[in-house]
Amino acid sequence: xxxxxxxxxxxxxxxxxxxxxxxxxxxxxxxxxxxxxxxxxxxxxxxxxxxxxxxxxxxxxxxxxxxxxxxxxxxxxxxxxxxxxxxxxxxxxxxxxxxxxxxxxxxxxxxxxxxxxxxxxxxxxxxxxxxxxxxxxxxxxxxxxxxxxxxxxxxxxxxxxxxxxxxxxxxxxxxxxxxxxxxxxxxxxxxxxxxxxxxxxxxxxxxxxxxxxxxxxxxxxxxxxxxxxxxxxxxxxxxxxxxxxxxxxxxxxxxxxxxxxxxxxxxxxxxxxxxxxxxxxxxxxxxxxxxxxxxxxxxxxxxxxxxxxxxxxxxxxxxxxxxxxxxxxxxxxxxxxxxxxxxxxxxxxxxx
Length: 352
Known about the structure:
Elements: H1 19-22, E1 33-35, E2 41-47, E3 50-58, E4 64-70, E5 73-81, E6 87-93, E7 96-104, E8 110-116, E9 119-127, E10 133-139, E11 142-150, E12 156-162, E13 165-173, E14 179-185, E15 188-196, E16 201-208, E17 211-220, E18 225-231, E19 234-242, E20 248-254, E21 257-265, E22 271-277, E23 280-288, E24 294-300, E25 303-311, E26 317-323, E27 326-334, E28 340-346, E29 349-351
Antiparallel strand pairs: 1-2, 2-3, 3-4, 4-5, 5-6, 6-7, 7-8, 8-9, 9-10, 10-11, 11-12, 12-13, 13-14, 14-15, 15-16, 16-17, 17-18, 18-19, 19-20, 20-21, 21-22, 22-23, 23-24, 24-25, 25-26, 26-27, 27-28, 28-29
């Protein structure tokens, strides 16, 4: 909300404030209209050389004030209309906007609340022309302290404000039902926090620039779970992914998928150790069955393809070619007793 960063304003009133200096001879309420040094005019009562009571001033720059004066200064309630289209209505003290008031800006933005020294200071509400709003504490014209941003799209964020943005601890409730609680920097999740999804699941860990980044735990609505490293919102680096059915993967991740080296354990006790890409067994690896059988070789799209060696729990060994997980091509089967069968296989069947 860039407009929130531009809340500060100061009215320089260089006219109609020190009438004594140039009306020294006026001792009583003897004039109704006073011409100001800038060419503007004020209409009202003069008492003891100063404007007092209800006064209407039109200044040389086109600004206009209508309200109360005391001893030549704006004091009490009044309306100040700026030549550029802005407007303030509220309290004045010692010739400055100070106290409760409403400031409407030329671009349609609006502030309602406390002022001091011509700027929003204290509690107030700033509403932009597009419907975004901030309510909370202001300091020297900017949101600062504790406050809440309420956006036109329904998002709502509260926390510690500095530089017109949440910095430090805060909480966001989004229009889609999601929620974030934790640390912020420049209005975005940064540091430690918890992001909860409306449809189930959550992330707890480190954030950077509003995204999951660093180490954390992601719980999914379907019961799956990932614990490890994240980058730019996705699992990246080393971690462990546990499925709801009891199977798991532990190893390297890239862009949310199994990639690099790792171990995949199936719920039935089988496991694969080796290289992965695109979330599948790809490259060199070993598949170990729960019964003790094991095959090592080249995997493609999750299956043995190419040269491999299988050592079986009964003592047999097969060395040869595989296609789509089956013996296919030339190979040698060595039985536990030492006998061998060498030849061609097709779809796991020996071709005599």
